[in-house]
Amino acid sequence: MKDFGRQKRRRPVQDMRLSRRKLLRMAAVSGPLLPPVVFAEDYPTRPVRLVVGLSPGGSVDLVTRIVARALSEFLGQQFIIENKPGASGDIATEAVVRATPDGYTLLVVLAANAINATLHQKLRFSPVRDLTMVAGMVRVPNVMEVNPAVPANTVPEFIAYAKANPGKLSYASGGTGSSLHVIGELFKMMAGIDMVHVPYRGGAPAMIDLLGGRVQVMFDTIPQAIEYIRDGKLRALAVTTATRSASLPNVPAMSDFVPGFQAGSWWGLAAPKDVPHEIVHVLSLATNAVLSDPGMQVRLAELGTTPLLYGPAPFASFVEMETDKWARVLKFSGTTED
User: Is the pTM of this model over 0.70?
Assistant: First the structure.
């Protein structure tokens, strides 16, 4: 998007530029976000590649381009998006794992990476072991949505209907191992119901069949679902995050009905394993700074996302917890792809 710097809502672009002195001042007051380290005084001196494991045009690609533009302005070097779709993000991930650990090749790490660590048992790398987590980027709520023909207006009504009709309801996803899939399996596990999973080659064809009534429910990302919900073409029963979403303020949280339920999509930045700590520090502080900008937060909210403000250690812990969580869900569902 080319409107990140719209002055009616945001500071002028030149105010985003970062001096090394300002960066050091920010580091001094960063508290627990980042540990004190020596800065890489000459980083970056050339363009930085951000590798995305999905095709251009989707919500991940869109938000990454907005953040990349802000990082370019902030650090004074271009951050270039390189799309490497395929194998649920594994092709892009392996490319970064094998890249020179100099800070000029980064991965947009996704919830899919945490899922693939269990789902793809023959991986030649470990997303947790072979990457250095740099910073969170955004959290994206998912929403449980049903075709209007489903006789349920609330989550308790849906659960009751599903229990009265075991195995007769189908839920769509963007593919086996996608966040839409595993969130559906988590719901089945915690609600104690039986539904049939119908995987599609992406969220768009899944949406077509949901709108047509060929499947009954989907645990979709809000950016893709929101216009259909607003137009009344789909009925939103709950958002899957722990609290309500500002994008759908009248839709309750799933945890109101299924205690302890919390799930969603997310992405952040990672680097090859042995990238210098000083470079990680610069990247993490800069990423959190641009995500904290009020204009950026307005733009992210417009897209149904919220900043995921994590430094390297908290983000690494978050990814490990997500990996363990989805390993339990996949074990429950019996899903494997190898």
Answer: yes
